Amino acid sequence: MAVYTQVDDAELIAFLATYDIGDLLSCKGIAEGVENSNYYLHTSAGSFILTLYEKRVAEADLPFFLGLMEHLARRGVTCPQPVRNRAGAPLGRLAGRPAVIVTFLDGYSVHHPEVAHCAALGETLAHLHLATADFEGRRANALSVDSWRPLFAPSAGRANEVEIGLRETVEAELDHLEKNWPRNLPSGVIHADLFPDNAFFLGDKMSGVIDFYFACNDAYAYDLAICLNAWCFDDAHRFETEKGTALLSAYRRVRPLTAAELDAFPTLARGAAIRFLLTRYVDWLNVPKGALVKPKDPREYLAKLRFHQTADGFL
Amino acid sequence: MAVYTQVDDAELIAFLATYDIGDLLSCKGIAEGVENSNYYLHTSAGSFILTLYEKRVAEADLPFFLGLMEHLARRGVTCPQPVRNRAGAPLGRLAGRPAVIVTFLDGYSVHHPEVAHCAALGETLAHLHLATADFEGRRANALSVDSWRPLFAPSAGRANEVEIGLRETVEAELDHLEKNWPRNLPSGVIHADLFPDNAFFLGDKMSGVIDFYFACNDAYAYDLAICLNAWCFDDAHRFETEKGTALLSAYRRVRPLTAAELDAFPTLARGAAIRFLLTRYVDWLNVPKGALVKPKDPREYLAKLRFHQTADGFL
């Protein structure tokens, strides 16, 4: 749920005049993405999404994200495409913010993914990874193993507010992951946040991927582990074997996993669990009283971590 | 800024199956209206708005609002049109809420209305009033003169938190208005909340009116006074004569004002100021700490009230 910046109609009309996409017909703030302000934009040339980048996205990273979306589309991975302005640039400024217009993508997020959705996701994710192989942009993963302890440490003393014993669980897990984190797996640009919210479907068919603002260079199999955690557990946070198998099999049909990736997968899955456990934990402690946006419960990812701690070899 | 209720894709697809408007292609929560949850809905038949009614709108009033929108459109006043489902009903249920689908209206709100916009508004408002003359629905104005004192009384003691002397100003004004409120002016269904947010334009041309959820039976000229206050003051809350003249002249060309309406107008304008002063005052005091939605400043309407208290006879 977003829309932080109000856009004045006169400013918007002036901004649109720098593009070749017709006249303004409608513009409505939409509740999509949590990092930026997004608007459904209708012009005489069609439908678009207008995005204003808020402070949480570093302006220096924008060429990487926009270049990645253009690159993926050229390789057949459907995602929003930046529209270039009359000067040929994908990035402009509106209401004091960096701003882009991207193509509108039909499709809707699936709240309770079925086996067929997990299979479609696996196939798309593998295509996405193959497509990034020759992408020249680079962006470090600021939320990988080395960042987890510094992320947790400042508020470790409040862990009991979330669950008794959480501090000990997290610190023991960080000890384990820092010792055992795999370092030389096949890598490239990964989405790093491909939750059901960021995948569009039309029926069982995946129609597109959105929200690349966590994309970075890291192990492909880590991206797959993030998806397994996000898509293949039920509402009570129990692993659903059939969905997990569907995701992994579909992925492996397009991009086979190496022996090292298979070997490392349980560790990657634990790491993918602690990464979202920790960011949710920090958000949970820092939510302003009375805020309209309910933070996501970090305990969901504690349950997933516990599953992976004991489920070695489910692949 | 709205979107309170999350709609599950499976529920939405089942809901759409009760309509004859094709298959779901996209549905995005939009930041429009403050009383309800609204979604931009794209189907294979076109674009629509899906509205879920939250608790602030009484379900018993919905047939009045929906009937009014259908009536106005038949009389040539452009506004969203409820789409009837296969059973012929405009109202259904989705996610536990009363729900309607209405046609999508192109146009955008003007943040700083110019003289031409005020003239277009006056013409549209007069047409709207004439068009309601033969509408059979009735709904009392729950926010008219008799409601203002009970609205203010419970929190009158906190008025100094907003501005020193506010309590005395409001109570003296209520004394004046209760004694002088005109009771037999030409009446019918009025919009009662036609702020710039609720008027759509394409250039200088008014393309539609939205958000009828305060519509009620009351004096036509009171609706005009609400618009004068909302459209014809600058950002420093100073009256802009040219805009006020444009609004009133355009209105009177379509629907002439009677002598009684002209005579009562200064009183109606003071009442229209205190009505929004008081609801904003109550919202201002009751905003939760840290809430993302910033309440509107009641002092804007205190400034407008003071203008009308001293500007007798500006018509």
TrEMBL record, chains A, B:
Belongs to the pseudomonas-type ThrB family. Keywords: Amino-acid biosynthesis, ATP-binding, Kinase, Nucleotide-binding, Threonine biosynthesis, Transferase. The gene is thrB. InterPro entries: Aminoglycoside_PTrfase, Homoserine_kinase_II, Kinase-like_dom_sf, Pseudomonas-type_ThrB. NCBIfam families: PRK05231.1, thrB_alt. Residues 27-257 form the Aminoglycoside phosphotransferase domain. This is Homoserine kinase. One of its GO terms (molecular function) is ATP binding. Pathway: Amino-acid biosynthesis; L-threonine biosynthesis; L-threonine from L-aspartate: step 4/5. It holds the Pfam family APH. The keyword Zinc does not apply. It catalyses: L-homoserine + ATP = O-phospho-L-homoserine + ADP + H(+). HAMAP family: Homoser_kinase_2. It comes from the Bacteria. The keyword Amino-acid biosynthesis applies. GO terms for biological process: threonine biosynthetic process.
